[in-house]
Structure formats: C-alpha cells, structure tokens
C-alpha cells in the first residue's frame, strides 16, 4: 500500500561521481540516521561492495549495528554520550571522533581494558560552534593525545572539522582556521594520516579543502546540498522514490469541503482520490495544499490537509481508480515531483524530506547483491 523504492545502484553511481570530484581523496560515505532514511545496513553493504573508503555514522550504536550486520569497512563515529565508556566500540574496531579531554581519557581507559589500540580523529571547532574543541582547548587536547600515543593507548588517525555552509566568506575563514589548527598539531609533533573538513557541499565548492578525505552524505543519495541547484547539475541520480496506491475514489458534488478544516472545496462535481500516506509516514503536514503528487504521469496538487494517515487529491474527471499508483516524489527526470519539490512546499530542505520518511512505508531495494 505504501512503498519506498531505494535504488542502491544509484547510490553506488553517486559514490563514483563524488569520488571523481574528490581528486584522489578518500571518500567517507555517511550513513547516519538510517542512511538519510534509505536504510543504513543495505546502503552500507552496497557502499562497501563499491569500495567506499570509510563509513560515517553519528553514534556508536549505529556503528555497532553495522558491525552486527557484517560490515567490515572502517567506520567513524563522532557524537558520543558524555559518559560513554567506549569498550564495545574498541572491541568492534570502531574509529572515534573526539573533541575533549574527558573522552580521550575514557578511550584510553577502554584501550587499557580491551588491550586494543584506539584509532581516533581529533575534532577542532572552526566556527560551526557545535561539536569540536575550541581554539583555546586545542593545544591541551593535542598535549593529552601525544601522551596517550606515547603510552600506546591511541593512534591519531585524523584531524577533522565541519563547515557551516553559511557563505563563501565564512567557509573560507573556516578553512583557514582548520589549516592553522592542523599546523599547530604538526608543530607539536603529533602524527596523523588524514585531514577531513568538507561534506557534500564543501567537496563540490572547495577543491582546495578536500585534503586526504571528504565526507559525502546527501549527495550519495542523489540530492544536491544546495537549495538553488538541482542534483542533475552534478550528474547525481536520486535514490529514493516514495509511492502509494489509491485506496478509495468517490464522486462528490460542487461545494463540498474536503478533510480537516475544509482547506479545499470542490469547484464542480469531481472525483476525490484518497492516498494512505500522512505525517505518520513522514509526509510534512506543512506541505498541505502546496505539494503535488503524480498519478498516471499527471501531476495533481494535494488538495486536503495532510492528516496522520492520509490525504486527498481532487482529480476532476480524470480516470483514476482504487489501486492506481501514486508517486509522492522520485526522480524528476521521469516526470514526477522530486524531494526538492516537496521540501519547497513544506518550507524545509531535501535532507529532512528523505530522512523523515518511514512510518508504515515498506522499503524495497533495487540493486542488492546476491549476498545481501
């Protein structure tokens, strides 16, 4: 009745597009938040098969889920509970992004308990002012890291940060701060392999900041990180198509109100089609009366208020029947509304649209290997 069709081959294709743009840098494929709604394990398997260098997740629980699913690729997790003990992460070979001395000490304790060398990436805050050590904390973090390296508890694999994507001037200032922090680390005698700063947007905009690795998230899923550009401009292919089937149609006279609040009233005798997708599936309520869907290749506005389980489309006198396929969004190259279109209608971004899709949707995967 409701289906998310995930094209894993499109994801592998997008990885190759972004790998070519990375100019020889390693690519960390970001699969946090259930791979932006696409299915973390299935996407990670496809990326691993396609030779991705790293997988990126937000937290250790996500990383452990990947390990339990048999994913062997290097995994980096960077958002941690203040009281995390890190033992299980080290036992499963998870690399850790760290930004404060407390977490470094906890990781060293876990290394001592497990007898495993902890591979860590140190994060400097270059201006996003979220996770990361401040400039004032940086030298102290480096000093502790050097001591723990000398004791044989940790290996510093990389230094990283994250751009704010506010504008070119702000991004360039962050790149300069990052380069300065890296130089301080080098001058302190700390050895590391990787620098990584840019995500999908920065990787496209600032080739000088691709360094040894780039982190690619939304572009993997065939979506542009820029609100004023379409993914097709970068050669990317959208990987998610959201569909449902009409559950009921009815003829109603002119002047009838439709669904909660009568946002729509029929202008003439017409056919109303009921679609069983609502905000419980992640369809934004704010898109009511503004988003459109496709039926038989024709686009229709969502006439009614989007409810928890359903919405209504006024299809006029068109031949629409119960069981007909409705495309809520997909690849605009096929003539259907895109995730970007829905994002504009809801006043949000494409990242949120695909990530929030779930609820009672079933996921169907195209391009799975025989081993999946």
Automatic annotation (TrEMBL):
CDD domains tied to this protein: PLPDE_III_AR
Cofactor annotation: pyridoxal 5'-phosphate
Keywords: Isomerase, Pyridoxal phosphate
Pfam family, one: Ala_racemase_C
Gene Ontology BP terms: D-alanine biosynthetic process; peptidoglycan biosynthetic process
Single GO MF descriptor: alanine racemase activity
GO terms under cellular component: cytosol
Domain (Alanine racemase C-terminal) ranges: 239-366
Name the UniProt record assigns to this protein: Unannotated protein
Organism whose genome encodes this protein: freshwater metagenome
